[in-house]
Design brief:
alpha+beta; Phosphomannose Isomerase, domain 2; Jelly Rolls; 2 domains; 8 helices; 20 strands; PMI_typeI_hel; mannose-6-phosphate isomerase activity; isomerase; RmlC-like_jellyroll
Amino acid sequence: MIVALTPFEALCGFRPLKEIAHFLSCVPPLRNLISDATAMEVQSACDSAGYEYGQKSAGIALKKAWSELLTAHPSRIRACAEDLIRFASSRPSNGSLAVEHGNLTDLILQLSQHYPYDVGLFAVLFMNHVCLSPGEALFVRSNELHAYLSGDGIECMASSANVVRAGFSRKTKDVDTLISMLTYEYLPPFVVRTPTPYLLVEMSSRQSTSVLYVSLAEEFNIIKTSLAPQFATANFRAFHGPTVLICTQGSGKIGVGDHTEPIECGHVFFAGAGKEIFIQSRSEEPLILFQSFCEIEEYNSTL
């Protein structure tokens, strides 16, 4: 899960199959990278996606189209990427690159400035485009395709063996592994626009806030706390598991049990299970901290 600190853009998960079918029929540079048989299979699956057998065939068709895109010869990708940039530049108001939630023309042209011949330019036509305002969050499901495009955020991850790349990166790519590991579901992105007030904390100031971002992962949730300037305090009840805190703004102090430490922007703290946490602001600006925590059901404070 990533919580936006600034305006933030990402691609996350496969977009609805009907939108992919639309792009296959209306965007020639994309169509030139996908075989006739697979394009017809995507359209057929789109027509029958409401049925149980249709959902299965939709996943198969989506995987075929995605695989053909990623495994196309680099020279073909380069040539088609150049065509896509010309296509987007010459038709800024054309509906070919438009879907229900907006037009992708500007996004493709913006990304082409950084990755002009990258297969990721076509991935934009397969994936959901997500825009977050500061304080909003995106949860990325296990084995869900995603790319962070711009902005700053605080991210917390469950345990992961690796990161597999196939585009928008100059690092090592592993296309075959990525193709094999994805779920090929076209689900709407899991976005938290309004986090839940966190109630297990005592605040000294009405201007202070603490909100909870509930993730789909059993390993963690995230809390964002903003303390009013100049000596506002927060007392957190003991968590039934460990917690990690990071300060992104302001300064003050933190106390865990009998131990106290100063806080400044960039400082990171670990608190063990069963410990109450005390925080106080001392700066002229609000003190902002994010913390991830894990509640262990079988935790026993006497151990």
